[in-house]
From TrEMBL:
Similarity comment: Belongs to the hexokinase family.
Listed GO MF terms: ATP binding; D-glucose binding; fructokinase activity; glucokinase activity
Protein name: Phosphotransferase
Source organism (scientific name): Leersia perrieri
Native organism taxonomy: Eukaryota, Viridiplantae, Streptophyta, Embryophyta, Tracheophyta
InterPro entries for the chain: ATPase_NBD (IPR043129), Hexokinase (IPR001312), Hexokinase_BS (IPR019807), Hexokinase_C (IPR022673), Hexokinase_N (IPR022672)
Record keywords: ATP-binding, Glycolysis, Kinase, Nucleotide-binding, Transferase
A single Gene Ontology CC term: cytosol
Keyword Transferase attributed: yes
Length: 438
């Protein structure tokens, strides 16, 4: 991971790790005041948020409206997607006075974007099952601005941010020792604060703080050291983005259930553990990750929840206890591998930052006493699946040893959206709020 991080910082295309510039060189300090808005697009759900903040890291109030993204919009046209987003914001604002007033808007767009400033950037490619051909290469902030103008709203994107960056912003707002953020939800990714002089591919990049948040896009990480199973290869073949997002396809919520399904399907073909009733196991994505989690977390002595899921969702009635145990085991292995890979990735970032206790930062400089390090983390898989969380935490301790005591993984709630609103505050045109050094 560290080698690839260096390669991605050295040149564009130098690594599968894109190490994208975010132009976020200042993070909220806690002194921001006012009302800010954000739109959060990119996971399973779509959110509109209104956040009121007061000095002293106080979130005075927040309003969140959430809805699932209709499946057809993820495969339709750019115009339809952004009109849907703009109209959702419009109906959200309709309840407010001064509908025409100017507002600062953070736009969380959780896909790889090549940014040209903090408020502009073009989509590199879709991930997580989205595939709208004509968006790639377009400035997504401009697409949203146009849709907002078309529906008569006087709101423009102030900050275009990846969900990891929003999460880092909220983490840092509460705790200045927060240096990185991880998302483990439908997709997975990480960002961290890098020194601008280490971003070799952008010579002469100056920021007031000397640092910039880098969006790693670690979902696309790959290394010849990573063992790939036949199931990973089969899964990749089923996806829209073949040969991409290899790390994500081993870790995130969009895929874990499907990996387990592929293993179970092969078992069904090569043995009689499921009897004649295993046809449904040949349906891609029939075993979703929430089911995989529920199977693994069933602690009833007769695995009754596993029986129910097999019966109702996979149409496998009467699987004997022995078979149900086997299914749990498969779900366990898939979960454990994912959690341990994510932990290894986090350890890699800490190593790059010289915070893994090896005493040497990857720049070669020896560091003193280990410092307290906070990593903000969120996403449905980490937050909603305790076994995954335990495996990840356990692996991090295993890798870091004693140093793990200085490292806190802090779960933020809605950080991707609230953090984007806070970044809109930091970067709003009147800039009363300057943000703080990073
Ligand atoms: C996207 C990232 C995003 C992550 C988590 C990945 O598929 O490429 O930009 O941060 O999912 O939502």
């Amino acid at each position: 991971m560290v080698v690839e991080m260096h390669a991605g910082l050295a040149s564009d295309g130098g690594s599968k790790l894109k190490m994208l510039l975010t132009f976020v060189d200042a993070l909220p300090t806690g002194n921001e005041e006012g009302i800010y808005y954000s739109i959060d697009l990119g996971g399973t759900n779509f959110r509109v948020l209104r956040v009121e903040v007061g000095a002293g890291s106080v979130i005075i109030g927040q309003m969140v409206e959430q809805q699932p993204i209709p499946d057809e919009l993820t495969k339709g046209t750019t115009e339809d997607l952004f009109n849907f987003v703009a109209l959702a914001l419009k109906s959200f604002l309709e309840g407010e006075n001064d509908l025409d007033g100017k507002r600062a808007l953070g736009f969380t767009f959780s896909f790889p974007v090549r940014q040209t400033s903090v408020s502009t950037g073009s989509l590199i490619r879709w991930t997580k099952g989205f595939s709208i051909g004509d968006t790639v290469g377009k400035d997504v902030a401009q697409c949203l601005n146009e849709a907002l103008a078309n529906c008569g709203l006087n709101v423009r994107v102030t900050a275009l941010v990846n969900d990891t960056v929003g999460t880092l912003a909220l983490g840092h707002y509460y705790d200045e020792d927060t240096v990185a953020a991880i998302i483990i939800g439908s997709g997975t990714n990480a960002c961290y604060i890098e020194r601008t002089d280490a971003i070799i591919k952008c010579q002469g990049l100056l920021t007031n703080s000397g640092g910039m948040v880098v969006n790693m896009e670690w979902g696309n990480f790959w290394s010849s050291h990573l063992p790939r199973t036949p199931y990973d290869i089969l899964l990749d073949e089923e996806t829209h983005n073949r040969n991409d997002q290899g790390f994500e396809k081993m870790i995130s919520g969009m895929y874990l259930g499907e990996i387990a399904r592929l293993v179970l399907h092969r078992m069904a073909l090569e043995s009689d553990v499921f009897g004649d009733a295993a046809d449904s196991l040949s349906n891609p994505f029939i075993l979703s990750t929430p089911f995989l989690a529920a199977i693994r977390e069933d602690d009833s002595p007769d695995l009754s929840e596993v029986r129910r899921i097999l019966q109702e969702h996979l149409k496998i009635p009467d699987a004997p206890l022995k078979t149900r145990r086997l299914v749990v085991k498969v779900c366990d292995i898939v979960t454990r591998r994912a959690a341990r890979l994510a932990a290894a990735g986090i350890a890699g970032i800490l190593k790059k930052l010289g915070r893994d206790g090896s005493g040497v930062a990857s720049s070669g400089r020896t560091r003193g006493q280990p410092r307290r390090t906070v990593v903000a983390i969120e996403g449905g898989l980490y937050q909603g699946y305790p076994v995954f969380r335990e495996y990840l935490d356990e692996a991090l301790v295993e890798i870091l040893g004693e140093v793990a005591r200085n490292v806190t993984l802090r779960v933020t709630e809605d950080g991707s959206g609230i953090g984007a609103a806070l970044l809109a505050a930091v970067h709003s045109s009147n800039r009363q709020q300057q943000g703080g050094p990073i």
